[in-house]
TrEMBL record:
<dbReference type="Pfam" id="PF13401">
    <property type="entry name" value="AAA_22"/>
</dbReference>
<feature type="compositionally biased region" description="Low complexity">
    <location>
        <begin position="303"/>
        <end position="320"/>
    </location>
</feature>
<feature type="compositionally biased region" description="Pro residues">
    <location>
        <begin position="321"/>
        <end position="334"/>
    </location>
</feature>
<protein>
    <recommendedName>
        <fullName>ORC1/DEAH AAA+ ATPase domain-containing protein</fullName>
    </recommendedName>
</protein>
<dbReference type="InterPro" id="IPR027417">
    <property type="entry name" value="P-loop_NTPase"/>
</dbReference>
<dbReference type="InterPro" id="IPR049945">
    <property type="entry name" value="AAA_22"/>
</dbReference>
<dbReference type="InterPro" id="IPR036680">
    <property type="entry name" value="SPOR-like_sf"/>
</dbReference>
<dbReference type="InterPro" id="IPR052026">
    <property type="entry name" value="ExeA_AAA_ATPase_DNA-bind"/>
</dbReference>
<feature type="region of interest" description="Disordered">
    <location>
        <begin position="303"/>
        <end position="335"/>
    </location>
</feature>
<feature type="domain" description="ORC1/DEAH AAA+ ATPase">
    <location>
        <begin position="42"/>
        <end position="170"/>
    </location>
</feature>
Length: 453
């Protein structure tokens, strides 16, 4: 909307992690270097904590890019994985074909594969995002994995990224074995006011801006106070400020634009997000323009560009190379409800029966997990998915976080084994892959569903 007005080549304040916009100030660069050192020197378990929106996921992505080529990285973004699903996810990322092996067999096969990589001079690092939301049994599995050794060398480095609640969880007496294996702990503190102005200009320069300072000292002061130094909030406010200034025909952001952005965002009236899954941020600036500060995480449905929604369904559906399991029920009648809400209700009703009839070891592809109060966004995302995939292969189910917050999960397909599911995941259209979908077992999903009954 405003790129040409400010001489920008791309949006400067997106809230999705783009590593070319990594800000090295405010101790971010030093933390990155310390993480690299800990990993390269086999320091075992490492922990990184920070408030919601402090930049943990950005740091994780940059770390993945800057590790040497001989290090294989495994990125786990889903905090609700069971202990068995963690093993399967790691094996899948390392391209190990272990089928439906039991946990003991998985660990033995994983250890043998890690030893083989170690002999080749390679190292494996597992990066776990949103670790504060992991079930305790899954954290215990992480501890056991950290024990895998060959001689005096750790076969796997593990880095936990989480909110401060992770520290509270690890402080419990029964978690002391895991806590004592953490050799390094880093904290991403909010930006100070003196850093916010530098951060804003850094993002603008990275997006191609070549002019003088856009944000006045007063505007920076207001943004810093309202955002509480959290980079995601800073990005949202700055984006709204630029839109307001553009709408007024100005090239500078002053108090008026900052106050309009603050009024539109209303951060101080929001309930704190204990789980910390990033939410897409959209809104109307007081001038009546739609803000462009949108983004999210793999758990947040993304709205596809219009160009993707106008293509004929026959041209966009992936080839049916994967067949459903032999034990699968008769496919549900294909239906094309007139509205997104109707499709949502239909799939929610029919999915429970379909999932309950599947063997626990059946695989599916989890496309999204979304808070219940954002049903309308998920209904839109479901409609987009139904234009790309058979509607009767999309499964909606109710679930909750460990804190009891109600959510909906959206999954695609039923597959007899992990390899078939992985092949189907690779064939998903790009707009359905941008949320980083993962593989889940039907058994794990059913456990979550039954807790709702």
């Amino acid at each position: 909307m405003y790129l040409e007005h400010y001489g920008l080549t791309e949006p400067p304040f997106r809230i999705t992690p783009h590593t070319e916009f990594f800000y090295q100030g405010a101790n971010r660069g030093a933390t990155l270097e310390a993480l690299q050192y800990a990993i390269l020197h086999g320091e075992g378990l490492v922990k990184v904590t920070g408030e919601v929106g402090a930049g943990k996921t950005m740091l994780c992505r940059v770390l993945m890019e800057r590790l040497p080529a001989n290090i294989d990285t495994v990125y786990l973004a889903n905090p609700s994985l069971s202990k068995d699903e963690i093993l399967l996810a790691i094996a899948d990322d390392l391209h190990l074909d272990l089928g439906n092996a039991r946990a003991k067999v998985l660990i033995r096969a994983l250890q043998e594969a890690l030893i083989a990589r170690y002999a080749e001079g390679r190292q494996v690092v597992v990066l776990i995002d949103e670790a504060h939301a992991m079930p305790e049994e899954s954290l215990e599995e992480v501890r056991l994995l950290s024990n895998l050794e060959h001689g005096h060398h750790k076969l796997m480095q593990i880095v936990l990224f989480g909110q401060p609640e992770l520290n509270d969880k690890l402080a419990a007496q029964h978690m002391r074995q895991l806590r004592e294996r953490i050799t390094h702990g880093f904290e991403l503190a909010p930006l100070r006011q003196t850093d916010v102005g530098d951060y804003l200009m850094f993002r603008l320069r990275a997006a191609g801006y070549k002019g003088p300072d856009i944000f006045t000292a007063k505007a920076v002061q207001l943004i810093s106070a309202e955002s509480e130094g959290l980079t995601r909030r800073i990005n949202i406010l700055a984006d709204k400020c630029l839109i307001a200034s553009f709408a007024a025909g100005r090239h500078q952001v002053d108090q008026a634009e900052a106050r309009a952005a603050i009024k539109d965002s209303g951060f101080r009236h929001r309930r704190p997000l204990r789980l910390g899954w990033p939410l897409a941020s959209t809104g109307l600036v007081s001038l009546g323009l739609i803000a462009g500060a949108t983004g999210g995480h793999w758990l947040t449905p993304q709205v596809a560009p219009p160009a993707h929604t106008t293509q004929p369904a026959a041209q966009t559906r992936p080839a049916p190379a994967i067949t459903p399991p032999a034990a699968a029920p008769t496919p549900l009648p294909a239906s094309q409800p007139a509205t997104a809400d109707a499709l949502f209700d239909t799939r929610l009703t029919q999915s429970r029966s379909a999932l309950n009839q599947q063997p626990a070891g059946t695989y599916t592809i989890l496309l999204s997990v979304t808070p219940k109060q954002r049903r309308a966004e998920l209904a839109d995302f479901l409609g987009q998915a139904a234009r790309k995939l058979p509607a009767d292969s999309l499964y909606l189910y109710p679930t909750t976080t460990r804190e009891g917050t109600p959510h909906y999960g959206l999954a695609y397909g039923l597959f007899t084994d992990q390899r078939a599911a992985a092949q189907a995941l690779a064939q998903l259209p790009p707009n359905l892959q941008r949320n980083q979908p993962i593989l889940r077992t039907v058994g794990g999903i059913r456990e979550e569903m039954w807790k709702q009954q």
